[in-house]
Amino acid sequence: MYSTDLRTDKEKKSADQQILDDAELWDTFQARIDNGDTIEAKDAMPEKYRQTLTRQISQHAHSEIIGQLPEGNWVTRAPTLKRKLILLAKIQDEAGHGLYLYSAAETLGRSRDDMVADLLSGKAKYSTIFNYPTPTWADIGTIGWLVDGAAIVNQIPLCRCSYGPYARAMVRVCKEESFHQRQGYEIVTTLARGSAEQKAMAQDSLNRFWWPSLMMFGPSDSASTHSSQNMKWNIKRHSNDELRQRFIDATIPQAEFLGLTIPDPDLKWNEERGSYDHGDIDWDEFWAVIKDGGICGKDRIQARRAAAKDGVWVRAAAEAYAAKQSAKEQVA
Ligand code: FAQ
Asked: What confidence tens digit (pLDDT) does each residue in 260-277 have?
């Protein structure tokens, strides 16, 4: 399709040249970061900065797109017309987030087609949370409450990320995620205040999604390969464990308010730290889901491959239309 990398070929070459040759560039670049500057698409930047951002933003975009699938499972079975409309709107928002993010990543020089090809071939990562199934309606509430909740805690600091196009995309994404979180919490509240069966359904969903939601923040700091460099570059502002702890501390009172139990017997308020201590996260499960796709990984990729195939004619029509319009403009 179309690249939104805004640089001319000459500018790309000269930026690349600078990156390779100019050790001073690293110092100048770091000084700009330390000064709190925003880096824009046309600015010279170390190749590693470009690569790690392309990696993170494209994984983020893939997560938004794949993230539509667990919820899409409930569009035809939402309990009321109103719930169905809200769910459809939320899923559409996730598609929009994917598009802003692919566009932000394209400004770094990779085409959307290439990034999507990596997703469809199974090469690219996306958040492990979306490889868990959604067998009950309560899961739609829990996804909004916990998954969007975790996404907000993780993404608010990204609104101050040093790379301008990503930071700006995150501002709008976060506003929409806040609304998603509230609609999810409202569904869970309705279930928790409903019949014994409905409350049990909400509890069961919390039991299944709690630990995978904690894994959304990435591996523990000691196992995180990118954190220290990315924090130096102001891409990340906080470590994985720090954000995970923030999410846990914010979510426990919400569960208490609902009369639901967080499935962690080791949760305990730590007076000294002013924070909750929690039990061990099963990192073997996390890495296994990354490696093998867990319960739903194969289905998720299969669904995206089918959508890409079914959409060939739509993309061809859009390209033909764009070509016609541009030919018309040239004549006029
Ligand atoms: N799943 O060195 P780190 C959403 C990988 S959007 C899979 O700590 P980093 C909206 C990581 O890529 C959810 N892989 O990496 C929604 C790296 O592998 P690599 C997505 C993971 O980048 C809601 C390796 O482990 N959000 O929920 C995961 O510094 C509801 C080592 O890790 C974002 O993408 C994982 N959970 O920190 C949609 C936010 N965690 O690339 C629909 C932006 C780590 O070297 C419905 N991303 N890995 O092969 C970030 O903030 C960061 O990239 C982290 C990971 C925090 C995810």
From this structure: 999 999 999 999 999 999
